[in-house]
Amino acid sequence: MQALIDAVKAAGLKALSFQGKVGAEDKADGSPVTLADKAANDILMLALSETGYPVLSEEGAHTPWEARQHWQKFWLVDPLDGTKEFLAGRPDFTVNLALIDGGEPVLGLVYVPATDHLYVGEKGKGAYLEVAGERRAISVNPDGTPPVVVASRSHPAPELAGWLAKLGEHELLSRGSSLKFCAIADGSAQLYPRFNPTMMWDTAAAQAVLEAAGGLVLTLAGEPLGYRRENLRNGGFIATAAARLLPEPS
């Protein structure tokens, strides 16, 4: 585990060293990518090559489904989640690393280089937050009154207003990157509805942290969000501290 922690921290600090110094180019899907993404990815790929498991990274070659469907365990990597926040000079961008086993995220590391916050969650072992070398266990708080809803700062969705109306009284916070999941995992928020598209590497690491902290992530059809599938793009989902907090379906 320590080797993984060292790798995500090294990748994050490398990315941070580029902030304010680089611009972005557009990838084929229109999303921005920077030299920071690529430098952080190189560090992670080198570290993960020692594990023996295949790697699927946002910034690497995307292995075809014909091969991926046979992967029992693999790493999912986003070397810089929250590129728009990074380019805007904000601190809420992360390095995301998840281990997928049988389509389920069983280990997740989310590192915030700007604040030196590290979130770690492992199935069956719980979750913790490490700040400046000090660790404390974290868990969800489903009893916030009113519930705190975290929403995307850079990707607002038109469906959100209607969903919030059905939810009723709430407090709304904006966050970037996978920190929306982490806010639920550490008990400072209760719900994160997502209607706009995301990719598997955007969600897996923080989902592992949240689930290890006692929360869950459900598709809009009410099924667990899983990762054994051909399509790398996620549909809509709701991350929550408890299923009972979700508004009744219309």
Automatic annotation (TrEMBL):
<feature type="binding site">
    <location>
        <position position="202"/>
    </location>
    <ligand>
        <name>substrate</name>
    </ligand>
</feature>
<feature type="binding site">
    <location>
        <position position="80"/>
    </location>
    <ligand>
        <name>Mg(2+) 1</name>
    </ligand>
</feature>
<dbReference type="Pfam" id="PF00459">
    <property type="entry name" value="Inositol_P"/>
</dbReference>
<comment type="similarity">
    <text>Belongs to the inositol monophosphatase superfamily. CysQ family.</text>
</comment>
<feature type="binding site">
    <location>
        <position position="81"/>
    </location>
    <ligand>
        <name>Mg(2+) 1</name>
    </ligand>
</feature>
<dbReference type="InterPro" id="IPR006240">
    <property type="entry name" value="CysQ"/>
</dbReference>
<dbReference type="GO" id="GO:0008441">
    <property type="term" value="F:3'(2'),5'-bisphosphate nucleotidase activity"/>
</dbReference>
<feature type="binding site">
    <location>
        <position position="58"/>
    </location>
    <ligand>
        <name>substrate</name>
    </ligand>
</feature>
<keyword id="KW-0460">Magnesium</keyword>
<keyword id="KW-0472">Membrane</keyword>
<feature type="binding site">
    <location>
        <position position="81"/>
    </location>
    <ligand>
        <name>Mg(2+) 2</name>
    </ligand>
</feature>
<keyword id="KW-0997">Cell inner membrane</keyword>
<feature type="binding site">
    <location>
        <position position="202"/>
    </location>
    <ligand>
        <name>Mg(2+) 2</name>
    </ligand>
</feature>
<feature type="binding site">
    <location>
        <position position="78"/>
    </location>
    <ligand>
        <name>Mg(2+) 1</name>
    </ligand>
</feature>
<dbReference type="GO" id="GO:0000103">
    <property type="term" value="P:sulfate assimilation"/>
</dbReference>
<feature type="binding site">
    <location>
        <position position="78"/>
    </location>
    <ligand>
        <name>Mg(2+) 2</name>
    </ligand>
</feature>
<comment type="function">
    <text>Converts adenosine-3',5'-bisphosphate (PAP) to AMP.</text>
</comment>
<feature type="binding site">
    <location>
        <position position="202"/>
    </location>
    <ligand>
        <name>Mg(2+) 1</name>
    </ligand>
</feature>
<dbReference type="GO" id="GO:0000287">
    <property type="term" value="F:magnesium ion binding"/>
</dbReference>
<keyword id="KW-0378">Hydrolase</keyword>
<protein>
    <recommendedName>
        <fullName>3'(2'),5'-bisphosphate nucleotidase CysQ</fullName>
        <ecNumber>3.1.3.7</ecNumber>
    </recommendedName>
</protein>
<feature type="binding site">
    <location>
        <position position="78"/>
    </location>
    <ligand>
        <name>Mg(2+) 1</name>
    </ligand>
</feature>
<feature type="binding site">
    <location>
        <begin position="80"/>
        <end position="83"/>
    </location>
    <ligand>
        <name>substrate</name>
    </ligand>
</feature>
<feature type="binding site">
    <location>
        <position position="80"/>
    </location>
    <ligand>
        <name>Mg(2+) 1</name>
    </ligand>
</feature>
<dbReference type="InterPro" id="IPR050725">
    <property type="entry name" value="CysQ/Inositol_MonoPase"/>
</dbReference>
<dbReference type="InterPro" id="IPR000760">
    <property type="entry name" value="Inositol_monophosphatase-like"/>
</dbReference>
<dbReference type="GO" id="GO:0050427">
    <property type="term" value="P:3'-phosphoadenosine 5'-phosphosulfate metabolic process"/>
</dbReference>
<dbReference type="GO" id="GO:0046854">
    <property type="term" value="P:phosphatidylinositol phosphate biosynthetic process"/>
</dbReference>
<feature type="binding site">
    <location>
        <position position="58"/>
    </location>
    <ligand>
        <name>Mg(2+) 1</name>
    </ligand>
</feature>
<feature type="binding site">
    <location>
        <position position="58"/>
    </location>
    <ligand>
        <name>Mg(2+) 1</name>
    </ligand>
</feature>
<dbReference type="InterPro" id="IPR020550">
    <property type="entry name" value="Inositol_monophosphatase_CS"/>
</dbReference>
<keyword id="KW-1003">Cell membrane</keyword>
<keyword id="KW-0479">Metal-binding</keyword>
<dbReference type="GO" id="GO:0005886">
    <property type="term" value="C:plasma membrane"/>
</dbReference>
